[in-house]
Amino acid sequence: MFVGHYSAALAAKAAEPRAPLWSYVIGAQVLDVGWATFIMIGLERAKLDESLPGSPLVLYRMPYTHSLPAAVAWSILGGVVAKYALKLPRRAAVAMGLVVFSHWVLDFVAHRPDLKLWWHGPEVGLGLWNFPVAEQAVEIGLLAIAGVFWAAWRARAGRRAWPAALFMGFLVALQIFALSAPEGGDRIQMGLVTLAAYFVAAVVAWLVERGPVDAAERLPTAAAKA
User: Fold this and answer.
1) How many CB atoms lie within 10 A of CB 182?
2) Are strands 115-116 and 123-124 parallel, antiparallel or unpaired?
3) Is the separation of the CB atoms in 15 and 202 below 8 Å?
4) Among 116, 181, 184, 187, which residue's Cβ finds the most Cβ atoms within 10 Å?
5) Do 140 and 175 contact (CB within 8 A), yes or no?
6) What Cα–Cα distance (Å) separates residue 154 from each residue in 19, 45, 170, 190, 224?
7) What residues have CB less than 8 Å from 82, skipping those under 6 apart?
């Protein structure tokens, strides 16, 4: 699962627009941002097995980012950062926490059994990666559905639709690039490439939202405390 994770960011933006899109985009991949960082410093481990169908990733140690307790902890942290660092209203902070946790849920669908239910507990995963065509259909389908909801919200708020279409096109292009790019490299290269992709996605999301803020996104004093 790669750009399919951004479906949660777009759905959250449509449901609770008072958080900036770039923050939801980062939140959707926080677990993988941590994973890429921990991979580079050796706290978590992964290897490639080209004989596997779909993704060649073998994720055999990632307790600090992709175990269920870690995902819950990262989700709570995401909500706290949204509330107190970004000064977002309570509902937007809750939405941010849910976006962060959605990463684990979607990984549960896509991954082979490599997600620990506890720090040293059993590993779970439905293994959609083993069916690459179906997995890609699910990813792009989720992205398309969430994108429609986001575009519909923009239309109701009186905003132009083309930035939504532009961002969706960018995400599809990013997915195609990820699928066509050669796998390989050491853990440093793997981590840096991953972080670079997420950084670019966040920057594009920020650029898409530049300009006057709609009335629906302003934070009146009363609403800011909601």
Assistant:
1) 5
2) antiparallel
3) no
4) 116
5) yes
6) 14, 41, 18, 36, 21
7) 19, 23, 27, 88, 92, 93, 96, 97
pLDDT, tens digit, 9 for 90 and up, residues 20-39:
999 999 999 999 999 999 99
C-alpha–C-alpha distance, residues 57 and 127, integer Å: 12
Could you tell me if residue 213 is left (phi over 0), alpha (psi between -120 and 50 degrees) or otherwise beta?
Answer: beta
Contacts of 141 (CB under 8 A, 6+ apart): none
Q: How many residues appear in the chain? A: 226
Residue 13 · residue 20 · CB < 8 Å:
no
What is the residue type of 45?
Answer: R
Q: Is 168 helix (H, G, I), strand (E, B) or coil?
A: helix
Distances (CA, A) of 40 to 27, 64, 74, 123, 170: 20, 14, 19, 23, 27
Contact yes or no for 100/65 (Cβ under 8 A): no
For the whole model, what pTM was predicted?
A: 0.90
- Long-range pairs of 202-210 with CB within 8 A, sequence gap ≥ 24: 202/22, 202/25, 202/26, 203/22, 204/167, 204/170, 205/9, 205/21, 205/22, 205/24, 205/25, 205/167, 206/20, 206/21, 206/22, 208/21, 208/163, 208/164, 208/166, 208/167, 209/20, 209/21, 209/22, 209/163
DSSP states of 90-139 as a string? HHHHHHHHHHHHHHHHHHHHHS-S-EESSTTS-EE---GGGSHHHHHHHH
pLDDT in tens, 175-202: 998 888 766 668 899 899 999 999 999 9
Tokens of 123: 């590993």
